[in-house]
Amino acid sequence: MITTEVTFDELAALMKQAAGITVDPKELKEAAESPFDSFGLDSLGLLGIVGELENRYGASLPPDSERCRTPREFLDLVNSTLTAGA
């Protein structure tokens, strides 16, 4: 079971790494309910982030992970999955 949660800082770094999109983690947290496309991230970029997290944590994320519309929704799903040991 994983007890570390993925943070907005880590998500911002993953957005840069997987999709080439630079977002200030503070801005990402403040606008957590805004759609990913308002940050310039599309579903393909989110899919890259999902893949990176699965590799990093050795855990599969739900198949609908890349359909999350906001950073808050995505982090809630990812963190609940990782801490549940799914």
From TrEMBL:
Output the Gene3D superfamilies linked to this UniProt entry: ACP-like
Q: Which residues cross the membrane?
A: none
* Ranges for domain Carrier: 5-86
Q: Which Pfam families match?
A: PP-binding (PF00550)
Q: Extract the InterPro entries matched here.
A: ACP-like_sf, PP-bd_ACP, Ppantetheine_attach_site
Q: Which SUPFAM superfamilies match?
A: ACP-like
Superkingdom field = Bacteria
Kindly state which keywords UniProt assigns to this record, in alphabetical order: Phosphopantetheine, Phosphoprotein
Q: What is this protein called?
A: Minimal PKS acyl carrier protein
Tell me the organism's taxonomic lineage. Answer: Bacteria, Bacillati, Actinomycetota, Actinomycetes, Kitasatosporales
